[in-house]
Design brief:
alpha/beta; single chain; 9-stranded mixed β-sheet; 9 strands
């Protein structure tokens, strides 16, 4: 049995070696072969130097270094293409996930589950981060009912699931949705996300917002259906209102003075039109982005065993 660990790294100086040491201690209890695929996502701190130290001391540590920051999903995708293990565990390098949970994940995998998801039921984060996460995954649950309430990043994948994921060639991916979409047997393990003690989270509001849009548009037709539904509703209301105006004007001789009702209608309808155009624009951009066929990431350096490919 061989377990591969895919660990994206972006400004994780100080926590990388600690993460590695804790994982090595755990692996000894599992009696398994292992490999680490660390993907440096364009870090501008000392992260790459720490990764190179691990690579030099352990031939089972592989390091990929991006030319710039391409994002966490791109880093995970790049790492999955390098794995050779029977099972692959994707996790972060910030020590916020309970490493001891891996033993339970491996047990459930051996029991026949191709995917084992560690999902967050609580977070030792700030109040704003907790509320933003709860709102995000509550909305995502409408798009994908299988999505656990607290979301997930900590996941074990059988090599069969990894092979399917590696066949997906898309940009602007919603990785969690891709995992749930495959249809393999899934086991869920709840855990409390630990407080970050080293460094600062790089998961900014803009990145969260983009990931939410990717999740909403890439895994569901709900936005398009919602636009159609709103169009039908407002068309019906518009015809009814027009009939009421015409009836009262010609039958009851009721004048309709003032511009307030007209302005209200213009603002509401105009706002809806702009919103719908924005959603359509997002779909058009994604279609255009796919047709350009630019790579999802660029590997500047690859360090595998004693070989270096520049």
């Amino acid at each position: 049995m061989k377990i591969s660990f895919v660990i994206p790294v972006f400004r994780n100086e100080g926590s990388i070696i600690l993460t590695y040491d804790k994982l090595i201690q755990l692996i000894k209890t599992l009696d398994a072969a292992y490999e680490f695929i660390f993907v440096d996502d364009g870090s501008d701190d000392n992260s790459l130097n720490e990764l190179m130290e691990l690579h030099q001391n352990d031939e089972n540590v592989k390091v990929l270094s991006f030319s710039r920051n391409f994002g966490q999903v791109a880093a995970v995708v790049a790492g999955l293409k390098q794995v050779t293990g029977d099972a692959v565990i994707n996790m972060s390098a910030d020590l916020q996930e309970p490493i001891e949970l891996i033993a339970d994940m491996v047990s459930k995998w051996k029991a026949g589950n191709e995917i084992v998801i560690g999902h967050r039921i609580d977070r030792e984060d700030s109040f704003i981060a907790n509320k933003a996460s709860a709102l995000f995954y509550s909305l995502m649950k409408y798009v994908n009912p299988k999505m656990p309430k607290g979301g997930f990043d900590f996941v074990l994948l059988d090599k069969k699931a990894v092979a399917v994921l590696n066949q997906i060639d898309e940009r602007n991916r919603f990785f969690q949705g891709d995992i749930l979409w495959m249809g393999f047997n899934v086991a869920f393990i709840p855990y409390n996300r630990l407080k970050r003690t080293i460094g600062k989270s790089q998961w900014t509001l803009s990145k969260k917002l983009k990931y939410f849009i990717d999740g909403l548009l890439n895994t569901s037709y709900i936005p398009i259906r919602l636009m159609s539904l709103l169009g039908i509703i407002f068309s019906i209301l518009g015809f009814i209102y027009a009939f009421v105006i015409a009836y009262n004007r010609f039958i009851n001789n009721t004048p309709f003075n003032g511009w307030a009702p007209i302005m209200i209608l213009i603002l509401i309808v105009g706002g809806l039109i702009m919103l719908m155009l924005g959603i359509i624009g997002e779909y058009v951009w994604r279609t255009y982005d796919e047709t350009r066929k630019r790579p999802l990431y660029i590997i500047k350096d690859k360090f595998i065993k004693d070989e270096t490919n520049n």
